[in-house]
TrEMBL record:
<keyword id="KW-0479">Metal-binding</keyword>
<keyword id="KW-0067">ATP-binding</keyword>
<comment type="subunit">
    <text>Homodimer.</text>
</comment>
<feature type="binding site">
    <location>
        <begin position="207"/>
        <end position="211"/>
    </location>
    <ligand>
        <name>ATP</name>
    </ligand>
</feature>
<keyword id="KW-0460">Magnesium</keyword>
<feature type="binding site">
    <location>
        <begin position="282"/>
        <end position="284"/>
    </location>
    <ligand>
        <name>ATP</name>
    </ligand>
</feature>
<comment type="function">
    <text>Catalyzes the formation of acetyl phosphate from acetate and ATP. Can also catalyze the reverse reaction.</text>
</comment>
<feature type="active site" description="Proton donor/acceptor">
    <location>
        <position position="147"/>
    </location>
</feature>
<dbReference type="InterPro" id="IPR000890">
    <property type="entry name" value="Aliphatic_acid_kin_short-chain"/>
</dbReference>
<dbReference type="GO" id="GO:0008776">
    <property type="term" value="F:acetate kinase activity"/>
</dbReference>
<keyword id="KW-0418">Kinase</keyword>
<comment type="pathway">
    <text>Metabolic intermediate biosynthesis; acetyl-CoA biosynthesis; acetyl-CoA from acetate: step 1/2.</text>
</comment>
<feature type="binding site">
    <location>
        <position position="90"/>
    </location>
    <ligand>
        <name>substrate</name>
    </ligand>
</feature>
<comment type="similarity">
    <text>Belongs to the acetokinase family.</text>
</comment>
<dbReference type="InterPro" id="IPR023865">
    <property type="entry name" value="Aliphatic_acid_kinase_CS"/>
</dbReference>
<dbReference type="GO" id="GO:0006083">
    <property type="term" value="P:acetate metabolic process"/>
</dbReference>
<feature type="site" description="Transition state stabilizer">
    <location>
        <position position="179"/>
    </location>
</feature>
Length: 395
């Protein structure tokens, strides 16, 4: 079966067409500036990237352009749309309603809409993508794969906040966690790579990119994760503050005369290593600035590394031990210095890093020595493949 995987943002749309039998991507692409002027970047497997400029007034127009590109005589990879057996949609927030992927029906769409308040920037865009595909591809089965679903196995002691319980009952204010599709995929890959028994395993997955989160996976199930009610909680990230004392919000609002909306914009888009360094949210820029003597960049990097190590240590305590730790996503897969610095805090766990093996980028590998008590892996994430697998499994 050929599965079209759609990841719809407010003004962008990422896609992959995946052959479920070979698990190879036949084509990948990105629609940008939807509703403005429109640009499609389309790359067929083994071919050159094709860039097409064309008006995309809405997501339906973008989807149509994607389908035209996939069937184009020159750079297409299928002869007709009838070859697409299903569409898998990434949906950011499923609340407590969805603990697994589901075939999309009108009832499912209504339930996703009920979660819009929990993810106002993401869920409405995800729904637009679903509706657009339904309009252009009637009769083709569609599946929703939720970022939050993997974390629905967290126990109340991990997901409840220290707030009056009525807020959980009335508004479902709790920790949900995100990056679930990535954490699930990498956790399973970790078990395969290390030979651990799923039902007797303690794994910590570090998804480190511009958005970053860490998850404790006990016997194949998420039992705690660093992101919370929103993706703002947890680690310091590229532009996000991560966890802070909530009283800081009122303090800055009073001192600077700013509204809650303005403060939240600062926490979401102007904080993290970008705000701390004044340089960039990209760790490559941060590294270069630190190496050239920029003290703020150096400190920002150190703070990030320290927080990652602290979360790993706390999750080792939460699971009463750890068998394997995996690094994934842009930074986790590609920055050997960050991995080495994080692991230097964890030598008490009996971790022994093989420096030569750690000198790797974007490659699936165990980077610890044979006598290390905890295995540490680098595993490139593949959320699109995970969505395709979920879609095929359901259908």
């Amino acid at each position: 079966m050929k599965v079209l995987v759609i990841n719809c943002g407010s003004s962008s749309l990422k896609y992959q067409l995946i052959d479920s039998e070979s698990e190879k991507a036949l084509a990948v692409g990105l629609c940008e500036r939807i509703g403005i002027d429109g640009r499609l970047n389309h790359t067929p497997a083994g071919g050159e990237k094709v860039v097409m400029e064309a008006p995309m007034g809405n997501h339906e127009a973008a989807i149509k352009m994607v389908l035209d590109a996939l069937t184009d005589n020159n750079h297409g990879v299928i002869k007709s749309l009838s070859e697409i057996g299903a569409v898998g949609h990434r949906v950011v927030h499923g609340g407590e309603k969805f603990a697994s992927s589901v075939v999309i029906t009108e009832e499912v769409i209504a339930a996703i809409e009920e979660c819009n308040d929990l993810a106002p920037l993401h869920n409405p865009a995800n729904l637009i993508g679903i509706r657009a595909c339904q309009a252009i591809m009637p009769g083709v089965p569609m599946v929703g794969v939720f970022d939050t679903a993997f974390h629905q196995t967290m126990p109340p002691k991990a997901y409840l906040y220290g707030l009056p319980y009525e807020y959980y009952e009335k508004y479902k204010i709790r920790r949900y966690g995100f990056h679930g599709t990535s954490h699930s995929y990498v956790a399973k890959k970790t078990l395969d790579l290390t030979g651990l028994d799923t039902n007797n395993s303690k794994v910590i997955v570090c998804h480190l990119g511009n958005g970053a989160s860490i998850t404790a996976v006990l016997n194949g199930k998420s039992v705690d994760t660093s992101m919370g009610f929103t993706p703002l909680e947890g680690l310091i990230m590229g532009t996000r503050s991560g966890s802070i004392d909530p009283a800081i919000i009122e303090f800055i609002a009073n001192k600077e005369g700013k509204s809650i909306e303005e403060i939240m914009n600062i926490l979401q888009k102007k904080s993290g290593v970008y705000g701390m360094s004044g340089v960039s949210s990209d760790f490559r820029d941060l590294e270069a600035a630190a190496d050239s003597g920029n003290e703020k960049a150096k400190i920002a990097k150190e703070v990030f590394i320290y927080r990652v190590a602290r979360y790993i240590g706390s999750y080792a305590a939460a699971m009463n031990g750890v068998d394997a730790i995996s690094f994934t996503a842009g930074l986790g897969e590609n920055d050997m210095k960050v991995r080495a610095s994080v692991l230097s805090y964890l030598e008490f766990l009996g971790i022994k890093v093989d420096t030569e093996k750690n000198n790797t980028r974007g490659k699936e590998i165990v980077i610890t020595t044979d006598d290390s008590k905890v295995k540490v892996c680098v595993i490139p994430t593949n959320e699109e493949l995970a969505i395709a697998r979920e879609t095929v499994a359901l259908l």
